[in-house]
Amino acid sequence: MTARAQLILANRAFLDHEAPRWADSPSTASSGGLLAAVRPVIAPWDGHAGTTWIGVGMGRFDREWVDARGYEILETPRGPLRHRRLFFGSATWQGHYGEVANSFTWPLFHLVRVDLPRATPYYPEPQPPSAAGWQSFVLVNRAFAEAACEEDGAQSCWVHDYQLALVPAMLRERGFRGPIGFFLHIPFPALAVIRPYLSGEVRERLAEIVRGMLGADLAGFQTPGDVERFAEAACELAGARPAAGGLEVDGRLVRVGAYPVGIDPEEVLAAARRAKPVTRVRAARELGLPVVVGLERGDFTKGIPERLRAIAEAYRQGRRFAYIGIASPTREGVEVYGALEAAIEREAARAREAAYWVGCPFTQVRAAVGWDDVVALQRDADVVFTSSLADGMNLVPLQAAVAQSLRPAAERAVVLAGVDAGVTKVYGGDGRDGLRAVDPLDQGSLLEGLTEGLEGRPARISDRFIAQVRERDARSWGERFLDDLEGTC
Ligand code: F6P
Fold first, then answer.
1. What pLDDT is attached to residue 459?
2. What is the per-residue DSSP string for 225-284?
3. pLDDT band with cut points at 50, 70 and 90 for residue 21
4. Do residues 201 and 156 make contact, with C-beta atoms less than 8 angstroms apart?
5. Quick one: which atom of ligand 1 is closest to the CA of 162?
6. Are 155 and 48 in contact (CB under 8 A)?
7. Residue 315: band (very low, low, confident or very high) from pLDDT cuts 50, 70, 90
8. Does residue 425 sit in helix, strand or coil?
9. What is the DSSP code (8-state) at residue 336?
10. What separation in Å is there between the alpha carbon of 463 and the centre of ligand 1?
C-alpha cells in the first residue's frame, strides 16, 4: 500500500501501555476484530506522511508514554505509527462505552434476523440510554472529531465502528477538508426486527446515529445485507433517498458498499508455525479423541450457551470427543453481560456431566489466552465450532482456515459458523469447502453440524477456502476501501 496521509479514528488505541515506561515489560497490543482488521492497514509514518491513529487512552500507564497532547510514535511491525490518545473521566467513559455503545447500540445492532432478547433467556434487550449517557457519547464523539480537525493537512479520515458513529457528521459540520470514510465492523440491524425497541426517544437516538454515519463520503459495511438494512433505515429515519452508487442526503451523495474485513494471513501462519500444541490437545490425542474447539470473546452474541447444549446432547448420544471452550473476558462491568455468565455456567455444568459419563475431557473456561495458544488450538482442532447468533464477520473461521493450511488436506478440520455471521454470507456455508453454516437457535442444526463435522463431513477445509481467505486479506480490504474513498473526491 502506498503511504498516504491518513487518519484512523478508533475507540481502541493501537496498543495499551499497561506497564510503566521504566519497566522492560512490553506494552499490550489491543485485541478484538477491529484491531485485527485495521492493524495491517497502517502506512508507516515518515515524519510527514503515513497513518496517524487516534484512540482512547485506556492503558493504566498511557499518560507516562505520551506528550501533553497525547501523542507518541509507536514502533509497529508495519513501521512507525503516529499515535494520539484522548483521555476521558470515568463517568464520561461509563456513559459512552458502558451505556450507549455496549448496552444500547451493540445489542441493538445484532438484531438482523431474529429478536434475540425474545429467542434466548440471556440476550439483553437494548437499553435506552439516559440523557447523561447520551451526552457522554456525544462528548466523546465530538472530542474525536475535534482531534481529527486539528490534524493539519490530513488527506482523508477513516472512522471506525459504532462507538464513533456520530463522528462523520461532526467532521463535516466542522469543515474537515479531506474525504471522510466510515466503516461499521458489526452488523446493521433490520428495522422490522428492532421495531419493538424503537419507542419515541430510542428511535430518535438511532436516527442520530444513522445521520452521524451519513456524514461520511463513503460508508462501508461487512456484507450486502448490512448495506441494504442501512439504506432502509437511512431512508426511514434520516430522510435519505436511494441514488446510483449510494444514498442521497441533503443534496449530497453518500456512497455505501460492502467491504468484508479480512485477516493478516502471515501473522496467523507465523504463529501456527511456531506455537506448540496446548496440553489439553496433546492429552486428547493420547486418548485417541478428536478435538472440538470453541474460542471467542465471552459475548452474548456468540451463541455459547446454545453450543454447549448441543455439545452435551452429542455426548449423551454417545459421541466421543474432547471439547475445549475458551471465552475471553470482555466488557467487564457492563451490566448487560451479567446473565450470559450464568447461562454459560449452567450449560457447561450439564455438558461436563454428560462428558463425564462417556469418559471424555470437557473444558469451558473464562480466560484470556495468548495469541500463540489461540492459533495452536485453531491449527490442531478437528472441528472449529463457532455459533454466533449474529456477527459482523467473525474472524475465527478465517484464522482457523489459514492455521489449518499447515496440515495435510485430508486431516484438516471442519469449521462451523452461525448462519447470521458475516463469514457465512461472504464465503458461503454449504460446507463444500469446509465452512458449514449452522443455526444456533436450532439445536438440530447445531447437533448435525457437530456430528457430521466430527466425521469430516460435508468436507474439510479446502485449498480453495484457504486461498480465498488469503486473497481477501486485511490489506486488500483496506486498499479497496481507501481507493474507493479517494474516488469520492
Ligand atoms: O470484535 C470486534 C469488535 O467487536 C469491534 O467491532 C469493536 O469495535 C470492538 O470489538 C470493541 O470491543 P471492546 O469493547 O473490547 O473495545
1. 98
2. HHHHHHHHHHHHHH--EEETTEEEETTEEEEEEE------HHHHHHHHHHPPPPHHHHHH
3. confident
4. no
5. 8
6. no
7. very high
8. helix
9. G
10. 30
